[in-house]
Design a protein that fits this description.
The chain is built from eleven helices and 14 strands. It is α/β, with parallel strands linked by helices and 323 residues long. Helix 1 packs parallel to helix 8, helix 3 packs parallel to helix 5 and helix 8 crosses helix 9. Bound molecules: adenosine monophosphate.
Length: 323
Amino acid sequence: MQILNSATFTAQKNPHMSLIVVGSMAFDQIETPFGKSDRIVGGAATYIALSASNFISPVNQISIVGGDFPQEELDDLSARGVNLEGVQIMKDQKSFFWAGRYHMDMNSRDTLDTQLNVLADFVPVVPESYQGSDFLMLGNLAPSIQHSVIRQLRKKPMLTVLDTMNFWMESSMSDLEKVLKDIDVLLINDSEARQLSAQYSLVRAAKEIMKMGPKYLVIKKGEHGALLFHGDAVFVAPALPLEEVFDPTGAGDTFAGGFVGHLARTKDISFENMKSAVIVGSAMASFSVEKFGTTRMKEIVREDIESRIRQFVDLVNFDITLI
Ligand code: AMP
């Protein structure tokens, strides 16, 4: 059993495990009540890789970008131990573009624009050198694309984790149902869990969703933390109460990178260790929201992560004597 406390946790990388990350690499334009960004680098797989590369190397990235994607961003990811062999660069095309606007409470947002560009015809190809990877993280993408990566792997990973969103439930539900049968852990937010299960109670929603395939389910609740379900067991993780949330974009992906990164680093996929992984994911997400885009994720070092995890341990640690 893996016990996560401030004395035992280290954010050291495990160089003997490998993780495949699939998802978008993008340009985002973000508006919050506090400001508006220019076109900045984002994308689900960018956030996942930036987060997971603190725990594991290599991160075997699968994505697609246009000729407009900055070379220095690719170089920065490489320097962090992200293998870009599976990232297709379409020189004469544009990268995926997404624009969103957050409301005052920062838990809800409107998508203002989605330009698929290179993502429209994306056919992911798993490089030979990625075969045999131990963990698979399928970031938010069309479920049929996510499924095609599972099918290309000759060895089943120890754990397959999938993130999705309401957009795919509305447009590609039958593809989503198919891929759900072939994964181990599903990560979604509370409104998506309700939509997918047609249940309002999150406990009932979790039971329905686990019947669809995944044995583990993480329901993210933004500033209210996250719930981990497995069978009849449930674990609750808080979110760090922050004075200021600057930009929540990528928080879910950063959570995913910390969650799967911790599991891969420790090579332990027990429910007990998944509880720790939810805390690590929450800690990583709490950094991501502190600045616009990926800025904060590029600044943090091992000591920052360790002290943030300690804060989380203290947040939920209490003594009680039961008579
Ligand atoms: P999150 O805030 O964790 O839900 O993720 C935000 C990231 O997802 C942004 O950086 C976007 O570039 C990316 N994104 C938004 N919509 C899509 C989509 N339909 N497919 C793939 N990636 C997307």
